[in-house]
Amino acid sequence: MSVISISDLSIALPRGADREFAVQDCSYDIAAGEILCVVGESGSGKSMTANAVMGLLPEGVSVAKGKAEFGGKDILTVSEAEQRALRGDRIAMIFQEPMTALNPLMRIGDQIAEVFEAHNRHRPAERREKALALIREVQLPDPEKIIRAYPFQLSGGQRQRAMIAMALALEPELLIADEPTTALDVTTQAQILKLILDLREKRGMAVMFITHDFGVVAEIADRVIVMRYGEIVERGNATEVLENPQHDYTKRLLAAIPSGLVGQSTEVAKAPALEIRNLEKTYKTGGGLFRERRDVRAIDNVSLTISRGEVLGLVGESGSGKSTLGRAVVRLVAPDAGEVIVGGTDLAALSDSELRAARHKVQMVFQDPYASLNPRHRVMRALTDGPIAKGVPKDKARARARELMETVGLGADAVDRFPHEFSGGQRQRIGIARALAMDPELIIADEAVSALDVSIQAQVLDLLRDLRTRFDLSILFITHDLRVAAQLCDRIAVMQKGKLVEIGPVSEVFLNPQHSYTQALLAAVPGGGWGQAAE
Amino acid sequence: MAIAGAILSRLIKAAITLLAIAILNFFLVHAAPGDPATVLAGEAGAADEQMIADLRARFGLDQPLYVQLARYVGNIVTLDLGYSFRQGQPVLDLILDRLPATLILTLSAFWISLLAGVALGVAASARVGKFTDTLITGTALLFYATPLYWAALMAVLVFSVQLGWLPGFGYETVGSGYSGFERALDILKHLILPALTLGLFFMAVYMRMTRASMLEVAQQDFVKTARAKGLMPSLIRRRHILRNALLPVVTLAGLQAGQLVGGAVLTETVFAWPGIGRLMFESLAARDYNTILGVFLVSAAMVIVFNILTDLVYRLIDPRIGHKA
Amino acid sequence: MTLWKRFITNRGALLGLAILIAVILVALLAPVLYPRGPWAMVQRPFLVPFTTDGLPLGTDTLGRDVLAGLVYGARVSLLVGLVSTVMALLIGVPLGALAGFYGKWVDEGAMRFTEFFQTIPNFALAIVLVAILEPTLTSITIAIAIVSWPPVARLVRAEVMSVTKREYVDAARLAGLSNMHILIRQVLPNTVSPIIVMASLMVATAILLESSLSFLGLGDPNIMSWGFQIGAARTVIRSAWWLSFFPGVAIVLTVLALNLIGEGLNDALNPHLARKGRS
């Protein structure tokens, strides 16, 4: 017996959008106790159906045709009041961004109790008790305290638990989860996924789980729907789709995912490209007349070496200090103590003007393709400003810029265009070309592929792999995504709370992790299965 | 505990600010043409030779500049704002005498403008793009462009001269012999036009801010969460959108306080409202610099007190402030 | 050019621009239109508007042509508005830019200084400055600039801070460019739009401030201005309403025009935000 049955649903986008329909001729059912994963890349329309079912379509977007039967009625055509009565009661939803999905000015308990209020259940005094019970059910620590806490006092994972508590308040028959773990760290993600699985077990509700991540699909899905440009291109049981995909797009998506396969380390020369010795950085906050001072050790006595031609993966969760370490190497963050030796010079000890002259030695590729290029400068300028400042003659710098744009696969003529004319993946290529233009001894890639869709991510990773062999690059590759790290890196360094907890060849770290944190991290990766080393 | 600390730190900051204003005053007096004694005594022969000699001695004009500064600041710290030769009274007495009228006027104008501005902003945002919105936004734009004093004059012309509905002059009916409730009513009648015209401009400011803020907050994720709970739209607007949208309005209200006190000079001048603004205007004509500087200092103090109050209100609304440790 | 296209589709902004151009033309042509200047006594005092040929807006308390005063007043308003805004930008932009770019103690110092000026009731400070420095066109302009720059500094600081956090600024640092080069070539150009919008609104505010000072009798005694006209007619409002009415209308129209232009610029420069505000 299906809880919800969607048939021939089409959702129209406003005029002037890049296509006519966000979702076209979409049909599927979800049975009680079943988890259906709706998978797709950004812009595939995967969230739109859920929004339509909830009656929460954005302004200008509307249902063009089709039905969504729930409890014997087409909920797309019932009155706004009836829809409102369903929302939060029989159908509940949780969202991607736990940081912004809660009202910052209301206590957690009040926000949960509000669900009862909206549907006129229980007396006000009872609502608090019910909220407390829910907080316990989603395993938030110290419920008596949490109920009185404000959202800013909770971590991302705790907020997502609070959201789930709200969604469960009235025991909905259908739970819609829109990328609920995307914004979370991998260990937190694993906990939330487990919580959703447990609750499904206990309550027997249907779950529509929207995600872009096949790893998550492997962990949680009973059935899968793959969407592209608003259409369903593949559907089936989770194991079927994952192991034996039929549609080309699904095949490509699955192939693009960095698999559990761990690469072999390349033999590298012994000459170091970078040596970090006892690096320290502590952030001090507060410390005013009336504020308590707080110290956060972002880099806690870290030492490591990257050999010439080696790719070292630096992994860790948010707040581990991995990005700070990358930025401290190039002195975008000033380290408190320690040495950063590149090509025989200690960058950490240079004066400002000496540093400026030495900066070309280490270059960075950044995370956000939309913020890493000056919107007012043409690509040519982005690629030549640095070399010219370094003393390369203008003509030479320009010729090199054209050459590099060829190298990264965008064509020499692209130098005359502005950043906004390129897609996210293309911008990352420009960012790579900009780094190469300085002939650096080391490139730091800080979450360089994290903002990209998986298929684009695969292309950029291919490019990096290719460049690395062609130019014998040394790369410090910072990422939160262990699967990506496993693909590209020779050695892996794991950071936790500012400390380097483990470092070693990629196969050792992944297949035989020594530190308990590394073990926990690896176990938490959805669809992990680091069974085998590649030949 | 956090609040007490915050108040203490604000008070220290306030004291430093007032001290800085006193120093600024000192240098302004020295920047004025003529020597400070003549400047402070007022021109046009208001002061005789003896007075000027006394003043010179008092300021220690024969002493080095820093000694003079120390004396001047010392006087102000002991609440000695000098003597108005024009009015034959200490400046502090003059100001304290007039302060209540200004407080009544500015506080009324503040509340009128804030309440009306927020209400209109909410109304406009609820009907974005529709006629009501256009009407409210258009009117606000007009008020925003209208000089305070001209709005006041036109109000006098229409409501007092032409229609005779409300008094357009003074604080209360002179020689009426009213007392108690009757007197309060009389003052209220006199207050309406000045408070409304002083508040118009600020009402436009708050309205625009509220509208923009409401529209922005309405786009945020937690509003979608609230809708997903099945809450009534009116409740969502009140509890989730409005409360968050008010935060920038409160900040703005704090910043605008100084403008309100400055605007009172104009309004009090037009309506002959016996406050410190009117006192400043009278002193301008009489070149009574001692009084002008005193009013300036006191109005700055008013603004500082007001800023501290808005700061506390902000802390009450936003739990994130003060909890951060 | 798309900027201009977006601007002219905004009817309010277009209206504002038309009014402003008209006011500028009138101001420029004043000596041609009224070669005798605004102070000349042309007829008997208190002539009611629309009753005498050649004196459409009547005469004032001394028999001067009200319209001639209005025409000359436009010159002062625009001049003071423009010059004081430029001066305020010259103070506020560098201060805000340095504070936002260098952060730490530079920021701390600059912002304490700005906060101080923002705490002082700005109209009262302008009165004190003009009163003590003697009212002249220069002192009025300077006074207005001194009370107007703090919001500029705050805006520029916030913008510079946000742009400085962008990764392309990090990239420029890694390219070995100097701080000044980065601030001037990479950061500031990306903060220009909000500054332009604010500047157009500041001209409007400056005109209001100038007229308010003149109204209180703190105008340059040798120059006819709208605020002075209203101030001089304040005491005769019961008998000669037109003396205060028309200059006020002139101020409202000019200030309204500038505000409309400012909003139009804002919408045109931030099409994304504008759309969000409307939909």
Quick structural overview:
The complex is a heterotrimer of chains A (535), B (325) and C (279). Chain A has 535 residues and is an alpha/beta fold.
Going by CATH, the architecture of the largest domain in chain B would be Orthogonal Bundle
* Main pleated-sheet profile of chain B: 2 strands, antiparallel
Q: What's the count of strands of chain C?
A: 0
Average predicted confidence as pLDDT of chain C = 88
Name of the CATH homologous superfamily of chain C: MetI-like
Low-confidence residue ranges of chain C: 273-279
What is the CATH topology assignment of chain C? Answer: MetI-like fold
Give a structural overview:
The complex is a heterotrimer of chains A (535), B (325) and C (279). Chain A has helices spanning 48-54, 80-86, 108-118, 124-137, 143-146, 156-168, 186-203, 214-220, 238-243, 248-256, 322-329, 352-358, 379-390, 394-407, 424-437, 454-471, 482-488, 506-511, 516-524, and strands at 2-12, 21-31, 35-39, 62-70, 73-74, 91-94, 174-178, 206-211, 223-228, 231-237, 272-285, 294-307, 311-315, 337-342, 345-346, 362-365, 442-446, 475-479, 491-496, 499-505. Chain A is of the alpha/beta class. In chain B, helix 1 runs antiparallel to helix 12, helix 5 (91-126) runs antiparallel to helix 6 and helix 5 packs antiparallel against helix 10. Chain B has a two-stranded antiparallel ribbon with strand order 1-2. With 279 residues, chain C is mainly alpha-helical. Chain C has twelve helices and no strands. Chain C has helices at 2-8, 11-33, 66-102, 104-119, 122-133, 137-164, 167-174, 179-187, 192-215, 226-233, 242-269, 271-278. In chain C, helix 3 packs across helix 9 (192-215), helix 9 (192-215) runs parallel beside helix 10 and helix 11 crosses helix 12 (271-278). Chain C is elongated, with a radius of gyration of 22 Å. Residues 273-279 of chain C have low confidence and may be disordered. Chains in contact: A-B, A-C, B-C. The interface between B and C is large, with 55 and 45 residues. Chain A: This is Microcin ABC transporter ATP-binding protein. Chain A: One of its GO terms (biological process) is peptide transport. Chain A: It holds the Pfam family ABC_tran.
